[in-house]
Amino acid sequence: PPDSLLSPDSHMDVQGYKWVRWRVWLCRLLALLTLGLLLILFHWRPRLAVLARCRSCPLALADVLLLRDSFGQQHVVEVLTEEMEAGSLDQLGQLEEDWRDTVQLHREEKTLLRYYLYEGLRYVWLDRKGAFCPVSVLNEDWTCKGLYGFQNGLSPQEQSWRRSVFGANLIDVPVKSYMRLLFEEVLNPFYIFQVFSITLWSIDEYYYYALCIFIISVISISISLYEIRKQSITLRNMARFITNVTIRRDSGEEDCVSSEELVPGDCLIIPQEGLVLPCDAALLAGECLVNESMLTGESVPVLKTPLPAADRTYSSETERRHTIFCGTHVIQAKGGRPGGRGAVAVVTSTGFFTAKGNLVSSILYPQPINFRFYQDAMKFLLILAVIAFIGTIYIFVILFRTNVTWLQLIIRSLDVVTIAVPPALPAAITTGTIYAQSRLKKRGIFCISPPRINICGKVSVFCFDKTGTLTEEGLDVWGVLESGPAGFSELVPDPTLLPPGDMRAALACCHTVTLLQGEPLGDPLELKMMESTGWTLLEPEGDGDAAHSAFGRHKVLAVMRPSTQRPQAQGTYSSEAVAIVKRFPFSSALQRMSVVTVAHGGRSALAFLKGSPEMVASLCRPDTVPAQFSATLRSVSSEGLRVLALACKPVDVNSDLLNIEREEVETEMQFLGLLMMKNLVKPESPEVINTLTLAHIRSVMITGDNILTAVNVAKSCRMVGSDEKVIFVIATPHSAESVPSLRFSVEDGAKAPRTTLTSSPLILQGLYQAGVDYHFAINGKSFAALCDHFPEYLPKVLMKATVFARMAPDQKTQLVKELQKLNYRVGMCGDGANDCGALRAADVGVSLSEAEASVASPFTSKTENISCVPLLIREGRCSLVTSFSLFRYMALYSLIQFCSVLILNTVKTTMADLQFLFCDLFLVTMLAIVMGRGGPSEELHPCRPPASLLALPVFGSLFIHTCTIVLGQLAAFFITTTQEWYIPLNSTVFGAENLPNMENTSVFALSAYQYIIMAVIVTKSFPHKKPLYHNVIFLCVLLIHFAVVTSLVLYPGPVFRRLFKLYDFNDMNFKMLLVAMAALNLLVCFVVELLIDVGVLNCLRLLRGRRPSKKQYKRLKALLSDSASWPPLDQTLSPTNGTVISFS
């Protein structure tokens, strides 16, 4: 068996193979003998090429690798080798152990580095791990403290060796030449089939038809090549970025080098005026104001602060506030170098291993879309291929009995295949998506993944971020509750009315607001908070010596000066400024931020903390937290207010405040009070949520805010109805004092969730049976405990959970994936900042951003509210229905022509060249192009369109319509042969030589009507599309086609008779009979389609009995609806007890 290894770093199954010379030469010989067909097969199936030319071997000796990714797709890559510089082993031996492993791989006379490239990433061979690993593993053990060791810079030799291993710092999107693209496009199975068809038609002397199809194919290929190359160049221009940067060498000198030469470990000097960063880097000294909109879609600049020198392992994800990402724009850098200018950072990732590289890679190599519609389309093509095979055998047998030549026998038999399998089918079903994308663009919604438009039509649950998505971005200060010995004081509506003291100083200083050209810039919440105090933000000028001296020689980041116009309680004026000397930025995971300040003259130092009330209270001394803290917090949160708590503590002013640890600051604090801010729900939110509810699409809120605030907002925007109960899910993890527990508590008005429930027998008898609708609300801590300790309850909680509060960014992503495991199609709408992971994990991610296209999600909406969501779903449903219609039409078009050819070939005739051309180009192609133009319905209907082409209604309708087609054409044929003036065919000749004749003309006439009839029948409108009369162009084309075909049947004229090789029927009654038969065909098909639409075929399902749904959430819903014990409201559950409702 091959030496296979599932690499934990890459999540890929890797198998090694070595070239076998005699096998390679044998394959070359066979390729020659098969006229290149073997090479085409190898191009389509690279795995076969490897198995045919190589033998399996250990990975350490492999020349070629066969990779299987996590989606089951296989890729072939070649192992590359690179000669390292002489003496590099000895030098690298002084570095990490891993480096030595990397290069001591293959030691003959040279030092070779063995690696392969996959999706832009470099994987190197590590002896110690016995595997190819991403080159990023070489620095995965770096600690925050260890990164400061790179502050002195790398030597030129060390940098050169690292460059050999890590490669150039370049996100290089390959732009293939036109010749290469042409070669790959022509080898597409679709075009191979076209070449086969054109060759066959040319041999059969169908020159006009072959020439037209050839011209269309050339135009199609040209457009396709142009678009592919244009997209590649656009992406390359966006991704490829080379600039000159300044790095520090180990000698202390500073060099200006190309960003291509950067390697992990380089010490990067960021100038004061900033730059666009060409790599990921951890900030070591100074502060940087960074615009990250390119990555997140978030337009508010973020303040980055120096990395704490802790012993924990460095991770760019956990240290986001200290990491500057590739592609982001540093607007301003300060405080990191002599003179207070610029900043110092260390390069942590380069090339495709950066955040920008990761996003570019996700665009270049998107995840395969697991959508049933696309899978069924391929299966149906196989069914048509089987029909074609049967038709080929039939024709072969029929013609074998006649005296046709072997060449004619083979050509006629193979010709059936080109008719039954429509090569244009895959292209045709994308027409609806193209129209939908165009309409969305006009409405300000941009899409970078068009196949996901159809998936929008199947969304069953939509998740929303709260702040900035459901509610307004900006907040207004509503009031302050200051804590004291007797508890909370009276509400102070305006912070400027607070007496001078720690609370007012905390509101003024505890933020990361900075100045850019004299204007304060930062988080809208912090700006409002700071401005509400009336204090002024100042920043040190020049090298800041004057400011440092004024504050006890401490390095000053910013100065907060109080207003001099407000009298103190004692009647004096306060004009004493406070300096901010250290900032610990806000972290979603930690739910807090803090600063260290120094009083004027350096007399004393105070640390201030701001964050979620629960988190701040847990970090304060219990004796300083008022007894009524929980009750007060519940009261204000349930009114929908955004609540923040503040705390402070004295710090030793003589200690090293610049290098003080966060853990040392954020402990044993003194609780100061609560700040309440009003966050208004956007006027569009309730209307949109109501629209989704009526359409049976679940709405879920995922927020980092307080759970009671979130529940209040959920009620305000109608996620939770006024008559519906909210049940709080409270799960606790394992601790030294207690075992994990799970509890379900019902809210009681604005009070706390009840912990004991002895009343309300209505609730206790089971909420389903009582007819009481309810929603679960859960916070991040409980969600984590539920996932870890109560996984059996997780699906049941997710079924009814509407509010997820205090969720960290990675928990948002996890929630989306857990909902997908229940077979929900999940949509996610957010503003991009903390939602990137969830937006990309969702089936449909919508980022509300000013950017025209954000790489954070497949869809970007320029409207700053969620009104884009119903529009996107309506367009998705319209596109899916259109794709279904086009698929059925193309399938029926093939079957109509297939049937015509079989009937005519049976009696030794066929269709004329121009008859084929007329049907394929004039009738079918024109109808297929304009069929998808109808726009979406104005309303969202409760039922979703089907996604399976092999479902009974779709398959059943295709079968019944095919039967009516066959019967119609046979009726036209036999009615013609029974006429008294009928003249039989000349049986001594075959095919086009028998034209014109009566059988051909009557069958062609009826089949031409059938193409038009089927276009009308399969074009669906209600309830997901606008009525048919809105698609004016389609109606006009239908009328023109009907008029042209009718004129060809009734009054063809000598010119058209000669061109189309039509027989001149003199009997007008017979011609009218053909038109009447077409009308009857239309009526029958219309009635059949109407009956199928109302569900007549569903009665066949009764014969097989009722089967459970394939969707897990539907099966679970059915199980829970029969359970009188769910949810268990009056008990505390542990991981080992409790009834588990399971499903398979």
Automatic annotation (TrEMBL):
Any one Gene Ontology cellular component term annotated for this protein: late endosome membrane
Residue span, P5B-type ATPase N-terminal domain: 9-125
Subcellular location: Membrane
Transmembrane segments: 22-44, 181-201, 207-228, 380-400, 406-436, 886-904, 910-930, 950-975, 1031-1052, 1072-1100
PROSITE patterns: ATPASE_E1_E2, COF_2
A molecular-function term among this protein's GO annotations: ATPase-coupled monoatomic cation transmembrane transporter activity
Keyword annotations from UniProtKB, A to Z: ATP-binding, Magnesium, Membrane, Metal-binding, Nucleotide-binding, Translocase, Transmembrane, Transmembrane helix
Protein name: ATPase cation transporting 13A2
